Amino acid sequence: MDFEFSEEQRLLKESVDGLFAGTYDFEQRKRYMKERGGWSKLVWQKLAEQGLLGLPFAENEGGFGAGTVETMIVMEALGRALVLEPYLPTVVIGGGFLRHGGSAAQRAEHVPAIIDGSKTLAFAQLERNSRYDLYDVTTSARKSEGGWVVDGEKLVVINGENAKTLIVTARSKGARRDKTGIGVFLIPSEAKGIAIKSYPTQDGLQAADVSFGKVEIGNESVIGDPEDALPLIEAVVDEARAALCAEAVGAMDESLKLTVEYLKTRRQFGVLIGSFQSLRHRAADMFVALEQARSMSMLAVMSIGASNAAERRQAVAAAKVQIGRSGKLIGEQSIQLHGGIGMTMEARIGHYFKRLTMVERAFGDTGYHLRRVSESGPLVGL
């Protein structure tokens, strides 16, 4: 299998790396965190101008028709720069639902606004007792005359404060943990009956708890089958997991670089600490963990297009396990090798550790995905 980037992919990597090199140093990031919603609208427009927001959409809809490898390239760059902007909830998740399940009318309404940067989305899925099970849904969607009525609460909705449209999972029939009877709905964030409570997360992003009190929406708001949308949800979330794996690889890569640079410059007892053999061994362990994570991230990316859903789920779960393990090792070692300074808010390295910790828990932590892998048997094709 050829793992080399094509010429177009190399140009994309150079472009996105160059964009963040000039607009996203650590001090700039801290300023962006103070803006409304916790991210920079100016940077978002620059992403739009470079075509990054339209990357996965079809050319006839104004996009570039790019694939999962291109998304991986962008997400790794986002991870290296600790980017705050809502690329994952808007382009990867929101765009995924529209591409895989949206009607022509829904795509015509939302895709151009995503591509030009005038609209962001948020995925409202997590509930108070659902943990990581996508089918554990209590938020209800009752059929009404001319549409639906949505009732319930969603928690930790990333970009929930700024999103113009919420993508909401709700139960149209059945019991709480039934795998059928689940629908996906596009709901304007300003619809009557919606209350949004925003707050910062540990890694510097902004999330919100969103309550729906008898929110009335039309039939045009339904994405796909309102009674059997779980396969669509699982496919889009697996794409999000693969994207998060790529972001984590970027964050781990930068963490290792920062740590090695620190070892080469910090002096103790009159000598560079990078000359201590034990610390060199720890840095080598970090490098091995990074390359293991990079390989599994590639496996997840390549599995997204698999025709066999079980094969896709298995590969993505295995990648998430390795990402969690590598992220923990690299994060902990980078903090320890930096010493006390690594624990301060002023040290960039600590923010990478926080982001890696949050990525490990997003859409299923290491233990959850390890169980998924063990239940499915040996990796298909390996």
Write structural notes for this entry.
The protein has 382 residues and is α+β, with helices and mostly antiparallel strands. The protein has three domains: 7-120, Butyryl-Coa Dehydrogenase, subunit A, domain 1 (Orthogonal Bundle), CATH 1.10.540; 122-223, Butyryl-CoA Dehydrogenase, subunit A, domain 2 (Beta Barrel); 230-376, Butyryl-CoA Dehydrogenase, subunit A, domain 3, CATH 1.20.140.10. 51% of the residues lie in helices and 16% in strands. It is built from eleven helices and ten strands. The chain has helices at 7-23, 26-33, 41-49, 68-81, 87-101, 104-115, 230-265, 277-303, 309-338, 348-361, 366-376, and strands at 121-124, 140-144, 147-158, 165-171, 182-188, 194-200, 206-218, 222-223, 267-268, 271-272. The strands form three sheets. Strands 1-4-5-8 form a four-stranded mixed beta sheet, covered by helices on one side. Helix 7 runs antiparallel to helix 10 (348-361). The longest helix is centred in the middle third of the chain and has 36 residues, at 230-265. It is globular, with a radius of gyration of 21 Å. The two termini are 13 Å apart. The model has no long low-confidence stretch (mean pLDDT 94).
